[in-house]
Write a structure and sequence with these properties.
heterodimer; B: alpha+beta
């Protein structure tokens, strides 16, 4: 009896309740919006509900795993991920010109998705190993560890995912203490570069300009962002229709299931990448700002968990995974409202799709695990339970 | 242990700073999103909302039913019938080939229809309906309607099609409709009517159909539909019903028109019959005629070629477009001019030896017949040319011009048809402007001689002669001639158009009486006596034979002259002689003597108008056409 009670207590204590509350709110809203986005046909809604259930269980299970185990697993998972990525190169399934999937017979796997979690864990583990004896060389090694999956994913080609994976790696390096002396000039250069691109948009987007490193369709996406009206029925259609949808929502929104852009099929990809347009059209500025606030709370909670954790691995893993979640939200919404190029980034809790939800669940599970197990190493630190500074 | 702890503490504090910086960046990024949301949802809200609305609403014009055209007794001259068409909206069809293959089992499609459909498909966008087949029979339409669920994107529509049930009868009055051309579009745009023609693909091209287009067309209705991104209608948001075009009641009497046309017996010519008391046109004949139904769906190449290249020129509207010298039918008016200008009185007599000499030139009567002493009365009854030649040295051409102008000679009558020509009422000014050579610009006295007998430079339309006859018949009132008697808005009573007096001609009653009496005797004992023998009513009229071929004194032998150069046969007149109710002018091209061809046609028309009960020919031919 007592052992069962203890076990139950452990299971419940593994949950970070504030984070779960936020996640529950977002999931509920996500399902609600999915219902509206699919309109009359609701098989996708049923699907999505099932994924949510599976994701919740997965999150819970991962929350029970101590972070040390995760740290030990990280190199293995990373190595497996790289192998799978290499395998994709040779035997992967191709669709729409991209080779991203690996058919294992019972499941279709997207190894690049694994890397979104595996890479930050691996780097966090690596920096923990180098605790106290870190030197600039470590960052170079980290860079190589980032570059390997990045290059493999870019070659699929899937620039969006590659950038997300790379950014996850970058966040670990940032939290591990990558010098601001390096970061600030790079950030400034980036801002300047974007400014220049905006200024010289016309020449850059001229058909004869070859962008060397980027594919034509990637060039198209960037150019479309710069001026969607140039190609209103082609590349610009997504952005134009989604901004119309968002804008027509106004302050209060057009009402649940009442958005004409959403209900009459004018928003392309309205159940996946552009589902935020459905939400913003039907719930307006108030709804959108409330949703942004919920996401913000989630990110703040993630950062708090990271800040409170005791080990380097926990801090780096939690911090970087939180920022990856932020990148998802920012890039997706930014693309829907026309300030970022159209890249295939789903909105967590909202976009239809099992893989993305499972990845999300793993990330949240790790956050919860870190949160639940922070008192364990502190026992050896002679700290008293919950009263952390 | 301590070292580890302090290292960890340092690490923690450094990490804390990093978290704060990251948090700040996150906050900034969310601020950026919030700002953009505010821009879209507050600042640009109105514009984007409008765009969302224009995205989802398709405004579909509903073309109005075109007004019908009726004769004065309510007989239908132009009407509309419903025709079923099949339209395809390409955006809603997955495979056009498969659709056609399936559809063919339900509705027959010829290879030609399929080819035309594919051509139209290439020319149009994917959201607009494209015509696949028209004129489906009721059975075909019903058959398709029962299967329509199998063919999303195929629409069965009922469309109004114009029809002229009388065929060739009064074709030139009605004119016809046709597809809106580039030029029509420009005209519509300049008259700001383009919007009212959305969804309409036909417009009046000729005749009443053209000149009364604004009344006939009606007001286009609008239906705004909510549509999906693929163009599929979801619901009707708003509808304004179209207002049908006004029906037109013509002054034309269809029975009279038929009799008049029949009287031409296949000869070329023109006839206009007017009610002299109000200017209403009772019959308006242009022979040969054509079938306006040919033009409704776009005329085929063969028929067009045949009509357009025929020597008989069936497409021209002879009564207003054809201008002729009118010969002796001009004499009554010249007689009035001579008396009004004080050169003659009703009693003045002239000696007619059968010719008139000016200088060394001899101008002969027709057939060189000598009539002896001739006054106004006799000059008209026997149609003496010499009496009128003799005026050549007393009346200037300009004085004649000024006298004739108020009768409407050489002037547009203002009839409600397009394409009227003014013709030529000769004067010295006219000659100066008509010729370039200074020699030719001069007016020669000899030219006045032929003008006085209605030959020479005179070129009048039959419409003008009919108008002048009506002025003579009613004692001097020039009405605007009209074909439309009343306009009947859909669902309400007809509104009469009303007679419109353009001006009055100042006529001396004595002179008029002299001419009128003479014209009555023309039909009793004069040139037209045979045509009007035993008419139970009194007719006033004048025959005319128009020379097209200068015989230079040689004897005219009808059969030896090329057919197109033979004389025109003409007649003008009104009846009853007292209180006339009909005035007419008729000219038959290359038909010979006025008394032999034109006058008998006039007789038939007068009979039909004044004694409708005895004109059994009319009823017979009416029932024939109706069948």
């Amino acid at each position: 009896m007592i052992s069962l009670f203890n076990w139950l207590l452990r299971v419940l204590r593994a949950i970070d309740w504030p984070l779960l509350l936020i996640v529950a709110c977002l999931s509920g809203i996500g399902l609600l919006v999915m219902q509206s986005a699919v309109g009359g046909t609701d098989w996708r809604f049923a699907d999505q509900s099932r994924y949510f259930t599976v994701a919740l269980v997965l999150m819970w299970v991962i929350a029970l795993v101590p972070p040390q185990w995760l740290a030990k697993l990280a190199p293995l998972v990373y190595g497996a991920g790289v192998l799978l990525l290499v395998a994709v190169m040779f035997v992967g399934d191709t669709s729409k010109g991209a080779t991203r999937w690996l058919d294992l017979g019972f499941v279709r796997l997207q190894p690049s998705e694994i890397m979104k979690i595996a890479l930050p864990l691996l780097l966090a583990w690596y920096f923990q190993q180098r605790e106290g004896k870190r030197n600039p060389l470590d960052y170079l090694i980290a860079l190589v560890l980032v570059a390997v999956p990045f290059v493999l994913i870019v070659r699929q080609p899937d620039l969006g995912t590659a950038l997300l994976v790379a950014s996850a790696g970058f966040f670990v390096m940032y939290f591990a203490g990558l010098s601001f002396k390096l970061l600030v000039p790079v950030a400034l250069a980036a801002v300047l570069g974007i400014g220049l691109v905006l200024t010289y948009e016309d020449t850059l987007c001229a058909p004869q300009t070859d962008w060397v490193v980027l594919h034509d369709y990637q060039k198209g996406r960037v150019c479309t962002l710069l001026d969607p009206t140039k190609d209103p029925l082609g590349k610009g259609f997504h952005t134009i229709q989604s901004t119309i949808a968002v804008g027509s929502g106004g302050l209060y929104g057009r009402g649940y299931m009442e958005g004409t852009q959403a209900q009459l099929d004018f928003i392309p990809e309205r159940t996946t990448d552009f589902i935020f347009a459905v939400f913003a059209e039907e719930f307006g500025l108030y709804g959108s700002v409330a949703l942004l606030f919920l996401f913000l709370l989630m990110i703040v909670r993630g950062l708090v968990i990271a800040a409170r954790s005791e080990t380097t691995f926990c801090r780096l893993a939690a911090g970087s995974l939180t920022l990856v979640l932020f990148v998802y939200v920012f890039v997706n919404i930014g693309m829907v409202i026309g300030i970022l190029p159209v890249v295939g980034v789903p909105l967590p809790f909202f976009s239809y799709g099992g893989t993305a939800l499972l990845t999300l669940a793993i990330a949240l599970g790790i956050l919860m695990s870190v949160s639940a197990h922070r008192s364990l190493p502190s026992a050896s630190n002679a700290r008293t339970g919950l009263g952390n500074p | 242990m301590f070292d580890f702890k302090s290292a960890n503490e340092r690490e923690r504090s450094r990490f804390g700073l990093r978290v704060w910086v990251a948090g700040l960046v996150v906050l900034l990024a969310f601020g950026l999103l919030g700002w953009r949301l505010w821009v879209l949802q507050v600042q640009q809200h109105q514009g984007l909302l409008q765009r969302a609305d224009s995205n989802r609403t398709a405004v579909v014009p509903i073309p109005p039913r075109r007004g019908e055209i009726l004769d004065r007794n309510g007989e239908v001259l132009a009407r509309n019938y419903l025709s079923y068409t099949l339209d395809v909206v390409p955006a809603q069809v997955d495979s056009i080939d498969k659709l056609l293959a399936d559809l063919e089992r339900v509705v027959p499609l010829s290879d030609r229809q399929k080819r035309q459909f594919e051509r139209r498909l290439r020319e149009s966008g994917s959201f607009a309906p494209v015509l696949l087949r028209n004129d489906l029979s009721d059975t075909e339409a019903a058959y398709f309607a029962a299967q329509a669920f199998r063919f999303p994107g195929v629409e069965l529509k009922a469309r109004w099609v114009r029809q002229y049930p009388q065929g060739q009868t009064a074709a030139h009055v009605l004119g016809y409709i046709g597809r809106i051309s580039e030029r029509d579009l420009q005209d519509l745009e300049s008259s700001n009517e383009l919007g009212n023609y959305r969804g309409t693909d036909i417009i009046g091209k000729k005749g009443i159909e053209k000149s009364w287009e604004p009344e006939l067309h009606g007001q286009t209705g609008i239906e705004s539909l909510e549509v999906t991104a693929r163009g599929k209608p979801v619901q009707t948001l708003h509808r304004i019903d179209p207002t049908p075009g006004h029906d037109l009641v013509l002054s034309l009497d269809l029975r009279l028109q038929r009799i008049a046309e029949k009287a031409f017996e296949g000869q070329r010519g023109a006839l206009v019959a007017i009610d002299p008391n109000n200017g209403e046109i009772l019959a308006f004949v242009s022979q040969p005629s054509f079938d306006p139904n040919l033009f409704v769906d776009g005329i085929d190449h063969e028929s067009w070629k045949q009509l357009n290249e025929s020597e008989d020129k069936p497409l021209i509207t002879r009564p207003v477009y054809g201008t002729y010298p009118i010969g002796s039918t001009y004499k009554p008016f010249v007689a009035l001019a001579a008396m009004a200008l004080g050169k003659r009185t009703p009693e003045t007599t002239i000696y007619d030896p059968g010719y008139y000499e000016m200088g060394k030139t001899r101008f002969r009567n027709a057939g060189s017949v000598p009539y002896g002493r001739v006054d106004v009365h006799k000059s008209l009854v026997v149609s003496s040319d010499t009496y009128y030649y003799s005026l050549a040295e007393e009346i200037t051409i300009d004085a004649l011009h000024n006298y004739m102008k108020p009768f409407g000679f050489g002037q547009k009558t203002g009839i409600d048809l397009v394409g009227e020509r003014s013709g030529i009422l000769p004067s010295t000014d006219w000659k100066k402007s008509a010729f370039r050579d200074p020699e030719q610009q001069r007016w020669y006295p000899g030219e006045t001689v032929s003008v006085l007998i209605g030959q020479g430079y005179n070129a009048f339309s039959l419409m003008q002669l009919a108008q002048a006859t009506a002025v003579l018949a009613n004692g001097g009132t020039y009405y605007r001639p009209s074909l439309v008697r009343a306009v009947k808005p859909s669902g309400s009573a007809p509104e009469p158009v009303g007679a419109q007096v353009m001006h009055t001609v100042d006529l001396d009653p004595n002179n008029v009486a002299a001419v009128r009496n003479a014209l009555v005797d023309v039909t009793k004992v004069g040139t037209a006596r045979r045509a009007f023998a035993s008419a139970p009513y009194e007719v006033a009229g004048k025959t005319g034979t128009i020379q097209l071929f200068n015989l230079k004194g040689a004897k005219y032998k009808r059969d030896e002259v090329d057919e197109r150069l033979r004389d025109h046969s003409a007649f003008m007149g009104y009846a009853p002689a007292k209180n006339p109710t009909i005035a007419l002018a008729v000219l038959v091209e290359n038909a010979g003597w006025g008394s032999e061809v034109a006058a008998p046609i006039a007789r038939k028309v007068f009979d039909a108008w004044l004694m409708p009960e005895t004109a059994e020919v009319a009823t017979a031919s009416a029932s024939e056409t109706a069948q």
